[in-house]
């Protein structure tokens, strides 16, 4: 079997001038930024029902706020910001973008109408567009190749940890002080961490040039970067497959709290009362702790499994998420049809673990099919595809399907949402098939 991932000599662009201590320190700052980005992004999910009632919104409008409104700016601005990141200081770009999205998160709590909230969520997407392309390429530059999937999986812990904090913090603060206060608390820490990132993160390009035995290439024009990626079917297959997994994950995540409050409202109130909590606070704690802890485990396992599998066969980067997508499907049906809400909450462990296994393998693949000077652009293009499909369409699809089943098919708002969530989960099979297709070209396409 050909060992396509661990060549005899590591190419010069993958060498790192930073010791393990600094790499861990830098990764912790980047992880903190990603945690806050997901906290700011996902806090709206636990606040969906009170926002709906206060602003008089339909489910499709909630889907817009939690998905497309954010994703339009987040995905389209990622590419021009990534081009800047190929030439200018990535730490300073991250710091500026973090300050921007944190400010717009605070402003979300001031919205009085749907258009105002829409603009605020677009602003959050505007700011967050600069984080991931810069962070992915920095981590790839900081980290030896053989540890890349694990390092990017560690960074991806920001997804479950940020979601956990958003759900827990958002639910508790909304119960105590209202949903508007939750946005203020979610946005404020990013303003502080932005300053830390700008001061302490190092731009590695000059350090890499100092240790290089050959000249470090300058960033190519966008047309050249696109030409390179056009010949990498592995990249596009992995991006689309991950986008479909995100379509399911974001779509269901945006409406999970609404589902439990609509279908199990009285039971949740009874469960929350002994703890001195209201339904939203209890639900935020339960969904956050159960789903967040399971997501952390799945994210770490995905990077670990992928690194181990890819040492023997590069196709392991595709096999791990394909298997996880298939195994996750049955759990979704039981979550949304079981009568007991606590059983349904505990069942969330399964898709939370399996639905996060793809982060490390997919992000590592995107950084490994291009040379170092194109990594930020590759990350931005990956996120463009992933988030347009997943974040942009997932919540909107679930919301629109819920409205359709509720009104046109006369299911009612509770049953309409239930079956919209069940039907959406079937897309995991399509994702698995596309991940499996990526195996065919994986060995050929990896270059760095």
What would your notes on this structure say?
With 448 residues, this protein is mainly alpha-helical. The chain has one domain: MFS general substrate transporter like domains (Growth Hormone, Chain: A, Up-down Bundle), CATH 1.20.1250.20. The protein contains 22 helices and no strands. The protein has helices spanning 20-46, 48-55, 59-76, 78-85, 90-108, 114-128, 131-142, 148-155, 158-177, 179-200, 205-211, 222-230, 233-263, 265-272, 279-312, 316-337, 341-347, 349-354, 359-368, 375-408, 412-424, 427-445. The radius of gyration is 21 Å and the shape is globular. It starts with 19 loop residues before the first helix and ends with a helix.
Key features?
single chain; 448 residues; mainly alpha; Growth Hormone, Chain: A; 0% strand; globular
Instruction: Give the overall shape.
Output: globular
Number of structural domains: 1
**Based on helices, strands and strand pairing, what is the structural class?**
mainly alpha
Mean pLDDT: 84
The fraction of residues in strands falls at under 5%
Please state the second-level CATH architecture.
Up-down Bundle
Treating each run of at least 4 consecutive H or I residues as one helix, how many helices? Answer: 22
Largest sheet: none
Please bin the fraction of helical residues.
over 70%
Organism: Phenylobacterium glaciei
GO molecular function: transmembrane transporter activity
Main location: membrane
Membrane topology: Multi-pass membrane protein
